[in-house]
Write a structure and sequence with these properties.
Blueprint lengths: L2 E5 L2 E3 L5 E8 L8 E6 L5 E7 L7 E2 L7 E6 L4 E6 L8 E7 L8 E2 L3 E5 L2
Parallel strand pairs: 2-11
Antiparallel strand pairs: 1-3, 3-8, 4-5, 4-9, 5-6, 7-8, 9-10, 9-11
Length: 118
């Protein structure tokens, strides 16, 4: 059974940092691209970042480029998202998804809430 479990969300002040993690199981993690997607209150899903299997070509949405860094540990089946210089508009539920692009997403985690507020 494929499982994706996010953790690391919370409340942070503007300019602060958080590190999200996604623990994967039930599939050969190292063989798949993985993504982070978010949903802000009252808005649709927004793709944030993706990492191919060996993370040599990470990609980022323009809204987070230069502030967020995606990484993965294939030995530990873990996907991470380091979020720096957080802004109130980064407030959202963050999901990890199996796949590199939306058409590939076949499994999602339950999400972790990130709230950026003073």
């Amino acid at each position: 059974e494929v499982q994706l479990v996010e953790s690391g969300g919370g409340l942070v002040q503007p300019g602060g940092s958080l590190r999200l993690s996604c623990a994967a199981s039930g599939f050969t993690f190292s063989s798949y691209a993985m993504s982070w997607v978010r949903q802000a209150p009252g808005k649709g899903l927004e793709w944030v970042s993706a990492a191919n299997s060996d993370i040599n070509k990470p990609t980022y949405a323009d809204s987070v480029k230069g502030r967020f860094t995606i990484s993965r540990d294939n030995a530990k089946n873990t996907l991470n998202l380091q979020m720096n210089s957080l802004k109130p508009e980064d407030t959202a539920v963050y999901y990890c998804a199996k796949g590199g692009i939306p058409d590939e997403y076949d499994y999602w985690g339950q999400g972790t809430q990130v709230t950026v507020s003073s």
